[in-house]
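Render Obg-like ATPase 1 in 3D.
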Amino acid sequence: MSLKTGIVGLPNVGKSTLFNALTENAAAQTANFPFCTIEPNVGIVAVPDERLKVLSQISSSENIIPAFVEIVDIAGLVKGASEGQGLGNKFLSNIRECDAIIHTVRCFDDDEVIHVDGRVNPVEDVATINFELALSDLLQVERRIDRLKKGKAKSPTEKAQEAAELEVLERVSLSLESGIPVRVLKLCEDESVLLSTLNLLTQKPCIYAANVCESDLRTKGSGNIYVENLLDLANSEGSAVCIVSAKIESELVQMELEEREFFLEELGVKEVGLPALVRAVYKQLKLQTYFTTGEKETRAWTTKIGATAPQAAGVIHTDFERGFIKAETVSYQDYVVSEGFAKAKEKGLWRLEGKEYVVKEGDIMVFKFNV
């Protein structure tokens, strides 16, 4: 399945620097002034997963194909973005196409880096962005409410569906008028489905990337009052926080692999931004990974947590789901210990699963189908 995230934030919070580092793409400008990114930049990054290398060695695979995430860097938003200030409207439409939002928040002091509001305050910065996204959503919701109130539904079933949708929309509208993100409302699944066609910005899962200095990266933000305030905010709305240093990320891009490892060891950091951000995105979107492996290739596939075997097969090809028969399945740990399907079968660790099987994180699968 295709996964797309958008990086948003105020100007000069390190957003484009982080984007460049994550995608190893120097195309996006990172000048120290607002609106330096005047077109959305898109990068494709592989999802880091050490299990792929292990599986490929066992299977003697010719190729390794990881899962991928598309990242869109969107120009810095400011107050009035929902009304077109700072090129805002143009870029808000790009966020609507994303599955999740990575909101970069400045959590460091530096007199040489201008803050668009003249001071560092992560909670207020987040409120500024959320308010603009909420206003943009409010316009969407109000248009839909107006259409529903015209009462074009004919059948009793349609009328009941429209009444249910209207009730949810009016509740959402009150929240948005106060600048409160839809995700804070904790809507049930049926209510969320009713809103799905609107593709609301503030309904999307959010991961706050707390951009810190080198010393705070080493301590994972401990003792940084900006990070602590951001964590409190994220917890209140069910969002995630990842501690990153755009400056360190950009330096690592210029280094060879061995040099990177030595630098991180000296810094006292085990991993940097990308793995943590991807894990957070997967967790917020309730996603998991399963694998296929053989001599030709070892490949990671992304599916929703709770997906059945046919649904997981459909990620590879719709024919696999339509004609699903069975799935040969071994857990990652059992596959590694057994060094492949053959010994796993001998040990009784190999399973033949049917249509009702719920796929687990790390499953190794071979699908049987007939169309």
